[in-house]
Amino acid sequence: MDFKECFPIWDKLTKEQQDKISKAVVHRHIEKGTVLYNGLDCTGLLLIKSGQLRAYILSDEGREITLYRLLDGDMCLFSASCIMSSLQFTINIISEKDSDIWVIPPDVYKNLMENSAAVANYTNELMASRFSEVMWLIEQIMWKSLDKRLAAFLTQESNLENTTSLKTTHEIIANHLGSAREVVTRMLRYFQSEGIVKLTRGTVEILDLQKLKKLNS
């Protein structure tokens, strides 16, 4: 799959615009654990060819919380924050798996936005979608107990990785949920006592996926 097949509104660009973005876009292979964006630079827009990225925010105390994941075909706008002057918070982007991405220079994309109604509309829709995900997350934090959020996270991870044996740590889970590792450990141990999961070093094995889903309902 090449860039034009992955870029969502390629067919709505003029030939001149297609040529311009094709010449400017850069392909990168990113290894797992690479920090792509930390709010300090205007990296550019990221289009994921394959792999998985994680967008998260970091508190002054060093606590993390996942905002959303970016998968095959997803576009990351917030890594080009310099083209969005109204953005008042810092997002970090890290690769959760080895990934192949295209980087669109911010000045090139900004020019497209200014000269193409299709690009401007797509950008606004994508931004609205991302903010909806963030608002959904806020609602979960405010109104859902940690056991339900943890159950939802483990279910999501199982679906994402297509396995019930999750290679992860209590600290990583805590970072996703914006909680303390000790709190997550206590909740996982409770799940284990209920026969829902089995805990071993570096692994959370889901024993009863239906019970986990029911807990989250």
From TrEMBL:
<dbReference type="InterPro" id="IPR036388">
    <property type="entry name" value="WH-like_DNA-bd_sf"/>
</dbReference>
<dbReference type="GO" id="GO:0003677">
    <property type="term" value="F:DNA binding"/>
</dbReference>
<keyword id="KW-0805">Transcription regulation</keyword>
<dbReference type="GO" id="GO:0005829">
    <property type="term" value="C:cytosol"/>
</dbReference>
<dbReference type="InterPro" id="IPR012318">
    <property type="entry name" value="HTH_CRP"/>
</dbReference>
<dbReference type="GO" id="GO:0003700">
    <property type="term" value="F:DNA-binding transcription factor activity"/>
</dbReference>
<dbReference type="InterPro" id="IPR014710">
    <property type="entry name" value="RmlC-like_jellyroll"/>
</dbReference>
<keyword id="KW-0804">Transcription</keyword>
<dbReference type="InterPro" id="IPR000595">
    <property type="entry name" value="cNMP-bd_dom"/>
</dbReference>
<dbReference type="InterPro" id="IPR018490">
    <property type="entry name" value="cNMP-bd_dom_sf"/>
</dbReference>
<dbReference type="InterPro" id="IPR050397">
    <property type="entry name" value="Env_Response_Regulators"/>
</dbReference>
<dbReference type="Pfam" id="PF13545">
    <property type="entry name" value="HTH_Crp_2"/>
</dbReference>
<dbReference type="Pfam" id="PF00027">
    <property type="entry name" value="cNMP_binding"/>
</dbReference>
<keyword id="KW-0238">DNA-binding</keyword>
<feature type="domain" description="HTH crp-type">
    <location>
        <begin position="144"/>
        <end position="210"/>
    </location>
</feature>
<dbReference type="InterPro" id="IPR036390">
    <property type="entry name" value="WH_DNA-bd_sf"/>
</dbReference>
<protein>
    <submittedName>
        <fullName>Crp/Fnr family transcriptional regulator</fullName>
    </submittedName>
</protein>
